């Protein structure tokens, strides 16, 4: 029996390590945040559903290169988004709910994960907790409509 208990403990530890972050892990894995909060709408590969939910990677990469775009991304995640968007030749008129339960480390982690092509490339520069905190402080009116107005580029693009 002790040998079986030991094996079970090892299996549980391996599962926990593979499914990072485990309880108490201060740095959430972007993949875990994405899987738990974003993938249900945007798909497991963040490719979206044309006409319903936009793809995320190319947008995150493009916006992450611009100071205004970085603010926009943080606010989309934390306040949600309402308004028409054109992405990749498709029009989106849905509503993205605020992911207000995410901590600042989780917001940074998921944006870094998305911007890195789901962990495949490096996102320069990566988001950090201070970035997220500063960006949220710059935009005290946290409505999804105001977040839409922050979107860089031509209106609705």
3D structure, described in words:
It is a single chain. The protein has eight helices and four strands. The N and C termini lie far apart (63 Å). By secondary structure, the chain is mostly helical. The strands form two sheets. It has a two-stranded antiparallel ribbon. A two-stranded antiparallel sheet has the order 2-3. A hairpin with a 2-residue loop joins strand 2 and strand 3 (90-92). The protein has helices spanning 2-18, 30-37, 39-42, 57-64, 67-79, 104-115, 129-138, 144-150; strands spanning 81-82, 85-87, 90-92, 95-96. Helix 5 (67-79) packs across helix 7 (129-138) and helix 5 runs antiparallel to helix 8 (144-150). Mean pLDDT is 82; it is low at 1-26.
Q: What attributes characterize this protein structure?
A:
two-stranded antiparallel sheet, 4 strands, 157 residues, disordered N terminus, 8 helices, single chain, mainly alpha
Extended strand count: 4
The low-pLDDT segments are 1-26
Order of helices and strands: HHHHHEEEEHHH
Query: What strand line-up does the widest sheet have?
Result: 1-4
Shape: globular
How confident is the prediction overall: mean pLDDT? Answer: 82
Measured on Cα atoms, how large is the radius of gyration?
18 Å
SS field, number of helical segments:
8
**Largest beta sheet, briefly?**
2 strands, antiparallel
Straight-line distance between termini: 63 Å
Helix content: 40-55%
């Amino acid at each position: 029996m002790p040998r079986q208990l030991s094996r079970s403990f090892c299996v549980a530890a391996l599962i926990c390590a593979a499914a990072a972050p485990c309880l108490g892990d201060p740095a959430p894995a972007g993949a875990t945040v994405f899987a738990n909060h974003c993938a249900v709408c945007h798909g497991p590969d963040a490719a979206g559903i044309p006409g319903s939910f936009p793809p995320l990677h190319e947008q995150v990469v493009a916006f992450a290169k611009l100071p205004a775009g970085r603010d926009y991304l943080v606010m989309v995640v934390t306040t949600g988004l309402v308004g028409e968007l054109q992405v990749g030749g498709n029009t989106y008129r849905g509503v993205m709910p605020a992911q207000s339960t995410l901590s600042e480390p989780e917001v940074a982690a998921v944006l870094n994960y998305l911007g890195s092509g789901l962990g495949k490339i490096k996102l320069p520069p990566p988001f950090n907790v201070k970035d997220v905190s500063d960006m949220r402080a710059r935009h005290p009116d946290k409505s999804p409509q105001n977040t839409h107005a922050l979107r860089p580029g031509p209106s609705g693009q």
